[in-house]
Amino acid sequence: QLSNKRKTLPSDGEATDLHEDEFTVRIQPPGAESFDLQVSGQMSVSELHQVLMDHELTCHHSCFSLQLGGAVLDSAAKLGSIQGIQEGALIRVVEDSYLVRDVRVHLRHVRNRLRSLDPAGRSLSYLSLFTRAHQESDSMEKGSVSRSPPFYILPGCKERRLTPLQPIRDDWKPLQCLRVLNISSWNPPPGNRKLHGDLMYISILTMEERELSITCCTRGFYLNQSTAFNFNPKPAAPKILCHSLVDLLSQLSPSFRKNFAALQKRRVYQHPYECIRAPVQVCAWAAPPGDHSLDCVTSEETDGQVTNRLGLMVTLTFVQIRDWNEELQRSRELPRASLLERRHRDRRLFRINSDFVAAAAQGAVSMTEGNVMPLNPGEPPHLHVSVWNNLFFSQGFDMSDHYAPVGGDAAAHAYASVDTEGLHTLGTAVVDYRGVRVTAQTVVPGLLEKNLEQIVYGSNDNGKTVFTHPRFLELLGESSKSLRIQPHQVLDHSDSPVELRSAVSTVGIFGSDGRPYILDLLRTFPPDLNFLVSAEAQQEVPAACRSFGFPQRHRHGLASLRPQLVEAFVQHRWMKTCFFVVFFRSELFAKMASDDLGHQFATEKPEEPQRAAEQNRRNIFWKACENVGSMSDSHFDIRFNPDVCFPGVRFPSECLPDVQKQRRLLWEAAAFLLSNQIPALRDCLDHKAVPMDGATLTSVIHQRGVNVRYLGAVLKELDEMEEREKLSHVQRISISEVITRSAKHIFRTYMKDVEPAAFSAAVSHFLNCLLSSSSAPVPDSCSDELPSRRRSRRRRTQSDRANFPTSSLWAKLTSDDLWSRIKTEAEDYYHYTFKRCICVCVAELKKHNLQKISLLREMSIKTGIQLQLREYMFECRHKPAFSEDDVVNIFPVVKHLKPTSTDAAGLVQQAQLAAQRGFLRAGLDLLGQALTLFSSVCGILHEDVSKCLRLLGRLRYTLGENDDALILQEKAALISERIQGTDHPQTVQDYTHLALYFFAGGRLSTSLQLLYRARYLTLLIIGEDHPQIALLDTMLGLVLHALMENELSLKFLQNALTLTSKYHGAKSLKHAHSHHVLAIVYEIKGELQLALNHEKEAHILYKNQLGESSDSTKESSEYLQRLTDQGAILQRAVRHIAQLGAKPVLFFWQLPNHPVILHQLNLTCGITFIPPR
């Protein structure tokens, strides 16, 4: 809503140019056959170079140039701008001479290829394990393959297994090509060898246990005669020179040649989306134990960057420092007039932002671990600032969520989202690592220089001295409209009025590059008066706020309203304005009728009634705007003054009435949040939004403009709802979120006192206090502790053994202490009071039906903890659940801006509107254009690409094009797994819809396995008491019914009936559908009486909800009559047999009908087929 979206969609001509921009060229690699490759005119030559490095036919090359007609192509040029490149053009891959940097790039590339199938260190995907492994069983006869699920998936099972989260994949089994690939100790080459072209030496140990010493020269790689203790750079037999290290090793080692070929085949067998590197890697919160191996490339990259005493990074020759700020600002200054220009600009911004986020995370980790010298070493550690890799790092000294997306982080990116031309902001990322919050920003050119003119706009001393500048007033004028910021005046240090168009704390400076920059954007959005307690505020508090117990004192003064809340409030005020206009106009007409003004107008001149009517119209609109708080009398314009409640800011006397008006407007916005937006969570009753974990719940409340700190108010509203039973899953997730977020706050403070050698012991002890049922969890002694050299183990006293680590402050934490602090934190920060004192965590968790495995997942994701993938015994009272060996790693948790294509986002919205109106083909065309734009800007692995594929698959399925829908949905599921996580709720949704498409395609066994996987993930995330389980169990029951597993089918369908009654209501259509499905299964099973009973219940519900004339009621009535007739026939046959003593007659019941079951599955998933227009 804050982004500068285009008011019009791309024209038909621009969309046509977008598709015509793609063409096919022919690539001629050295010594191999040519092949075709589809490219885009906007693709640069360097991007084509990277594509060829990943292609299976040219993957062993990295140092080459591309030539067209004998001319070398410029790496920065766009393919579309090069003369001669057209459909069918031949581009030759020509090997180039190596430099030292090229050799290191080649080694890194070879290392990546050898480890391309290693799951460690990359985003995971397991979809192909279920779609390919069961492809053969789909073609086998029904009943020949076991359809039973694992016991921990069955309804009613309370055991939650963790190890199935990452099943074993055969194609991930290690396929070792080399034992060791390392940089030789003979480096660097001596001067005389440099004159012969030697660049580097590497040592290799092959699978045949043969030691090889390889020389990297300008022409390629060859085997030399050096050994570990004898340097002899002369070529050894066989004297072979290869431009690629892979080609050389293939000739020297038969095992390498065989295994590398097998490795390439495995890569070809994998889905392409499994091999592409994700822009941002998703680290799993649980990982199997892995072996650490030699890695020369990572070692060189780690050693290649050191820091000097000033904290500036000193770089060796092969590492290049990037000017992040210059790259970012130049990308923002690119032209944006046409669609192709905007696509190029958006792509540049996305890629630079992805690289910046990776560098920010790496720098924050280095800073936290003490590997970067601060610029102010004399200050306390929490005030340290550092410069690393041209990035500026500072710690979030207040442990509260200053920079959380509810306030500061969103504000930090607000102006970047508005994207005002000429106004520059810094690249910003917030990193949480080991309990420390670090803010990373690009460096303003010249900011660290003393001779640079400092602040020219705003104030950096809480309003004591305030500056303004006409250039910034001009630039902020446009953005203030989008951000709903009211231009206002404040008094400076000399009591002179100063005009501002932003918060007073927002400062503007001119960098040494001449660009205007704005900084310190924390107070961009309006303050939230519900969390600002002051003496004068008590008289202004609306009744809606007081009913919820507000205002409440918050931990910091940065509480602000979300932009979604601001837009919803403005929309609400616009509707109110329209109401007032109608009301005042009706009053005016009534007055005119009573005063007989019509006769008076008739006696006056013709122009006077027109002027009077126009004046009346203006007066009506002026009164309406005045009633809703508009800052303009002539038009509707709601804006907020962010400095109204800022301490230390003084306003001119003539502005005080307007300041009071702004205070009232802020209170009305705060009351609107409580009285309108929080009750709007009733939308979850329609199950349009079904949160499954903390992340999805946060997304739901954020969409309504509700901050996470209102969780206490949300829970209070849920308690008072009549339908609270139907929203019990939302209440349960909210309580879980309060507990885990409070525990995260405590974890930050807890980790501050931990020495580096005890990190794993401290983390495991914290988790034991949080989740273990052990009566008194005691931290393990450090397994790496070494005994003193002067004191034998026998002579060490008990106090000496207990000195480490139990003497540390963190080791004194107990379970009761932790849960007592969680209770206090929940009251102070989220204003939620647990009804009973939390003395033991088990009682509170059982009371709210919370799973410990779900809390562990939430806690690990929020703090970046990675645990060993094994089964944890939470209920064991004799042994703690966690040990220090269970803590595998701690990853940085990064919050950052996610740029995308605004043109493509507009196309998606239009496509959804077209589909809702029945124009499905038009929706497909629009989604195809959006998918092309998103893929070009963000790459394949992106949330927006997954969304487009998901919508395209749904439309294709609705149109009956199931094969295309299956391919599209499979891609969407793969992307969700890799960029959001294998156990993310969106992954569960994608698995569910993919199972439906597989069933429609006749692959029943694959559909069943996907549903089993989706149910397992849902059980792990939230447990069995959830609406998603009702949907999955209904689908599982129908699929099992189609496979003639009726006994197993009934288990799932009966559980679905119970959950449907709870979450949808016993009188809902969903409940009627559950009864109908059970009747179908019981009929096939031969239990006609049970089938008849369930169908009677369904018929009553359909009749009461839809009426006698509805299609559902008629179908139920016909089916009920058929069941009645079958029952009557059966009873007559039984009586006839009993009377005459005849032989029993076998009744053959009808087999499951695939179209009928598919129709029921579609109804379960909410898919209705409508005729396309």
Record the SSE blueprint.
Elements: H1 12-20, E1 22-28, E2 35-40, H2 45-54, E3 64-68, E4 71-72, E5 90-95, H3 100-114, H4 127-131, H5 135-138, E6 178-183, H6 191-194, E7 198-206, E8 211-217, E9 220-223, H7 245-252, H8 254-269, H9 272-275, E10 286-287, H10 296-303, E11 305-307, E12 313-315, H11 324-332, H12 339-368, E13 385-388, E14 391-395, H13 408-412, H14 414-418, E15 428-433, E16 436-442, H15 470-482, E17 488-491, E18 497-500, E19 507-510, E20 516-519, H16 543-547, H17 563-595, H18 597-603, H19 607-628, H20 656-677, H21 694-703, H22 711-720, H23 728-752, H24 759-771, H25 798-802, H26 815-829, H27 841-847, H28 852-863, E21 865-868, E22 887-890, E23 893-896, H29 902-916, H30 920-938, H31 943-958, H32 962-980, H33 985-1000, H34 1004-1021, H35 1027-1042, H36 1046-1063, H37 1069-1085, H38 1088-1106, H39 1111-1140, H40 1154-1164
Parallel strand pairs: 1-5, 10-21
Antiparallel strand pairs: 1-2, 3-4, 3-5, 6-7, 7-8, 8-9, 11-12, 13-14, 14-16, 15-16, 15-23, 17-18, 19-20, 21-22
Helix pairs in contact: 7-8, 11-12, 12-30, 17-19, 22-23, 23-26, 23-28, 24-26, 29-30, 30-31, 31-32, 32-33, 33-34, 34-35, 35-36, 35-40, 36-37, 37-38, 38-39
Pfam families: CLU (PF13236), CLU_N (PF15044), eIF3_p135 (PF12807), TPR_12 (PF13424)
GO biological process, one term: glycerol metabolic process
InterPro entries: CLU-central, CLU_dom, CLU_N, CLU_prot, DhaK_dom, GSKIP_dom_sf, TPR-like_helical_dom_sf
Q: Your description of this structure?
A:
With 1173 residues, this protein is α+β, with helices and mostly antiparallel strands. Among the domains are: 22-96, Ubiquitin-like (UB roll) (Roll); 98-118 and 174-277, copper amine oxidase-like fold (2-Layer Sandwich); 322-443, no CATH class; 450-524, no CATH class; 543-591 and 614-688, no CATH class; 696-778 and 811-896, no CATH class. Helix content is 46%, strand content 9%. The protein contains 40 helices and 23 strands. The strands form 7 sheets. Strands 2-1-5-3-4 form a 5-stranded mixed β-sheet. A 5-stranded antiparallel β-sheet has the order 13-14-16-15-23. A hairpin with a 2-residue loop joins strand 3 and strand 4 (71-72).
